[in-house]
Amino acid sequence: MNLAAEGNKLMKADTVNTAVIPATKLEEDSYDWWERHEQVLKIKDEMNPEIVLVGDSITHFWGGLPAPNSQHGTGAAWDSVFEGRRVLNLGFGWDRTQNVLWRLDNGQMEGLSPEWVVINIGTNNTSGTDNARASTAEEVQSGVRAIVERVRKTAPSAQVILMAVFPREESPADPRRLLIGRMNELYTALAAELGLTFLDIGKLMLAEDGTLPREIAFDTCHLTEQGYQLWADALREVISAK
């Protein structure tokens, strides 16, 4: 039985938590998902990363290796926190928790001993498409728990930073924004339970009235250089303190 194929078929089912079922590529994006996976496998051991970033397009298109086919921002924010460090970027555009689980199950961190693993995942689980339904906040938390379990099994000495899901949509009353708020409540509890460093920069990204400015997220999802700088500053403070 092809478990990945079976997992993909289950993505539309409402009776199971699809966020914890490992699945391969689900959505079309501006890059080749499978090619990027192969690139990771080719470079990871030689790189011997100090830091591993795990995430979706927000991480993918920030920078680093494997090099993205396009980059959001100028790269200055990336350099401000990662310059001189060996950083493996396991961000894959359109990925959900279930895609990350498949990638971890298929060698992307095998044999690595990073000092830090930064996890920023879950925003795409809020989207329902023809290929996958949206997840509940509780389902996504379970998906993140499964990711952390795999990371710790593979790299038990790594310190894990769990990012709060960044704000999305312009209005603070948008249903997706409210869902993300609930997700972050559950992420906070999960981080406390598992002894993770929880990092929430959401308030720094918002205007006084709670709206998400396009100067921070140009499409009210993906970050501009200014948005990335907020993330970089927060990460640098944590990483430099230990």
Automatic annotation (TrEMBL):
Any Pfam family the entry gives: Lipase_GDSL_2
Segments forming domain SGNH hydrolase-type esterase: 54-230
PANTHER family to which the protein is assigned, alphabetical: SGNH HYDROLASE-TYPE ESTERASE DOMAIN-CONTAINING PROTEIN, THIOESTERASE 1/PROTEASE 1/LYSOPHOSPHOLIPASE L1
Protein name: SGNH hydrolase-type esterase domain-containing protein
